[in-house]
Amino acid sequence: MTKITQSVVAMDSIDKNVPVLWQDDEFVIRYNVAKSVHKLVLSMNKSASDCNNQSSLRGDDVLLKWTHTCLSIDPQSFILKKTDQVSRIQLVWCHGNVVYCDSLTIDSQNIVGFETEPLITVDFDVSAYYVIWNHGLVLLYEKLSSILHVFDTGYNKKIGEIAMYSTDLHDTPMRSYVLYSRNHDLFSVVVFEYDSSIKKTIHYLNTYSLPNFNLKHYSRLPEGYIDYVILQPQPSTIRTCNTLNNEIITICSYCNILQKITIQWFSFTNETNTKPWFETTIRDYSFNMGATIKDHTVSLLLSNSNATGKQLFRATFDPFSLSQEWEINQINN
Question: pTM for the complete prediction?
Fold first, then answer.
């Protein structure tokens, strides 16, 4: 194991607005990304059990602060391994062509171990990544070739690659194009293929079975849209964000030039029918990349422009509702 020297310093105060990356009943880890200099600052302090209880976070509770040079971070890259005596928190992150893993070992009161080790070194710059913890897989996106490389960290080898669709992963998180279902051991990804016979690029939602990385089924996505993103189900708490048991995958296809948005619901477990089990389209609005989905109900942040300027709206749709209609409400500026 290669040990990398880290700067571990005390922190006098903590910004209550810094987002939470991971939390349990005893500890909270917060992060702040300075995109202009590609710096990631993480801080760990004692916390209350309520993830939203900001008043419990005090500067003198800070146990550890550390900094990495990397482009981005995501809550999905964290995992907790807990025993009766100690907890071990692991964080995967990337810089350049190297994938690293931070490991923090904690007893009931103190941090008893902290180290960083390189997991994988590749021959391309990693633009984004996605971790599937229970199989030891790391998906690495190479922007220059639009290839998603699948690596097995246990055997330190590449087991496959996918022509993954994306726009700009420095602005759009990778989880907008990939979704893993722990319950069914499947992961889905938005892919593209150029069809020379019709001179068009066709987009698909591919679903692969693990651990063998076999294509289980694929669904062709609608044409005439600029972007295709996967809407992520909302966990009930921050602590469960790595253990979602997803039955349904929801795709948002949109074109802000034509002001057209289509939402499609697909089944993870459908063996034969590759068509969505439900879809709906909303027109005359632009998609603002603000979207949530909970219990299959989609909530979108939309906008449109008129003579008085740009207006924002919150639109919701429940595919199981009797009305089957969008509910659209203007947001007061």
Answer: 0.77
